[in-house]
Amino acid sequence: MVDTPTADSPAEPDITHINPASEKTWFGHPRQLARLFTTEMWERFGYYGMRALLTLYLANYFLFSDRTTNGLYGGFTALVYLTPLVGGLLADRYLGSKRSVKFGAIIMSLGYLTLSIGAGLGQEAKPFATMEGTRYEVVVDKASPTKQQYLVDGASRLAIKGQEDGTVQLVAADGSIAKTVAKGVLEFDGERNPLFTMILLVGLSMVTMGNGFFKPNISTMVGSLYAQGDRRRDAGFTIFYMGINLGSLFSQLLCPFLQEAVGWWAGFGLAAAGMLFSWALIQFDGGRLDGYGEPPAGQPDRSMIIYIGALVAVPVILFLFNNLMNAPAPVEGAGFIPYLVALPLMGKLLFGTFLIGIPAILIWSAMVGTKTELQMMLAAMVLIVFNVFFWTLFEQAGSSLTLFADRNTDLSVFGWFTITAGQTQFFNAFFIVALAPVMSILWTSMAKNGIEPTIPVKFSIALAGVGLGFLFLVWGSQFADAGFKVGIWWLAGLYLIHSVAELCISPVGLSMITKLSIARIVGMMMGVWFLSISCAQYVAGVVAQFASVETVGGQVTNPAVALQTYVAVFWNIGLIAIGAGLVLFLLSFPLKYWMHGVK
Ligand code: GLN
Q1: Are 387 and 462 in contact (CB under 8 A)?
Q2: Distance in Å, CA 492 to ligand 1 centroid
Q3: d(CA 558, CA 549)
Q4: Fewer Cβ within 10 Å of end Cβ, the chain: N or C?
Q5: Contact between residue 295 and residue 99 where contact means Cβ atoms under 8 Å apart
Q6: What average pLDDT values come out for the chain (599 residues) when binned by 10 residues?
Q7: CATH number assigned to the domain covering 30-124+193-200+208-226+263-326
Q8: What CATH code is assigned to 340-599?
Q9: Does 244 contact ligand 1 (Cβ within 6 A)?
């Protein structure tokens, strides 16, 4: 966002004439931005292309239950945002940003390649059911419009029909009910080859590791293009944010397309190819980035140790994933302490760090800082906590909303053609690309008139927005068709509202941290910001688990129950988000005072 001078924040000096990076410019920005833009664009092409496939891959190919699928997805994305803490630190101390980005790019492409190879060599899990100790084969008639599932009982095939009360009817070919099974008696699962499950988890571990080296450091490099006080910095980050979403937009359309047309391996393969291209762009930069993101001077070269250490850490992440997948379901009504104790290691690690870290940093600030500094740090922490709320709900996109798209959305576009469930993720990126310039202009013109909302108010709009998006979809759900499918435009509407909300919080957040933090610990505060997004991803998985529905062979047993379940969860989180937005709006008054003029 472009900073506009106002009465209480005087214009920063225009120093573009002394900024060496601006000798030759790209849209008025240092020309290096172009290379960082394309490198990040292709990296996000890989990441979001993979993300458009992942949940459906887990649920429909590996046939994991919704609980496992959403839990694993949440754990994976949590680690994707946690590793940047270490990756950023190692780059600052030893590697330098550029080498970190190159290393991260290689590891991430290998991660996507591993996913692709696993999908190419492996076989789709085979659905089965167990009832009173006996195992039955299950077949899914993929050609039928409802993708009817059948339980094979000796010579007869019984259609599996989930009922609204949770019982399951087994219906014979002549339409007679062969058996009604009480809730929970019939258990569905998939038979998976453990080797390929392992390959999947290794691939995901590599992606989290690579992202830790790549993501924070490419952003640092963008920051380093601008001298202190260069007014183009915020606009530069907005352009960069457009690159992120431009990359994801195309891959969210193409990877699911390839998956459908060719196979899962091809979808993941395209993500790997995009990531490799990103690596090539930064590796062979033709000297364009010389002098940027170099390792700190006077430090011994520790790169080999770090590279080996990162590879050795991959099995550690693998262990965390296994621990997560084997965690028992929480006992309902057992209380908070037993819930915490039963949390998988990853959950304990994330919440522990967050819950201890925030008060500890505040106590430290009270001891070393002035009253003003403490107040600014307090304001930052309050906003960081609300940031967790935002991303928890926003990040339903990759999990519960994609499963909703798969099961309860009519994916036909004006009856002309249909898109796939994974492709619905593209709406967010599309709206960001379309709206980022509009919002940028809006904030600038509001600022000129002295009515630009303060940062806490922008955050509260974002929270209320994310809630409204869900309520919009809930409203649309009453117009579902006879197959309990809601029109795609309701989902598109949700993404439109969510994207406006994202633009109120995401590009604003990072620069806000740099301004509110006590200078000495700004790096750590950036880490806390990423940590808050990481916790959010984890909780997002837990929230998505609430929206779990029963499936057989990747198909829901009762679409009516599925729709009811989704609507109930979306309604609740919609209301909670609006409530949180209101609370933050009220808090924005003291916060404005605590922020001491930071905009
Ligand atoms: N879509 C943005 C990105 O991938 C922001 C995501 C986030 O910060 N949670 O960079």
Answers
A1: no
A2: 19
A3: 9
A4: C
A5: yes
A6: 40 49 76 95 98 97 94 95 89 90 97 98 92 88 82 86 84 87 85 95 97 91 83 84 95 98 98 98 92 85 93 93 86 74 88 90 91 92 94 96 96 93 97 93 89 92 97 96 93 98 87 78 80 94 91 86 95 97 96 85
A7: 1.20.1250.20
A8: 1.20.1250.20
A9: yes
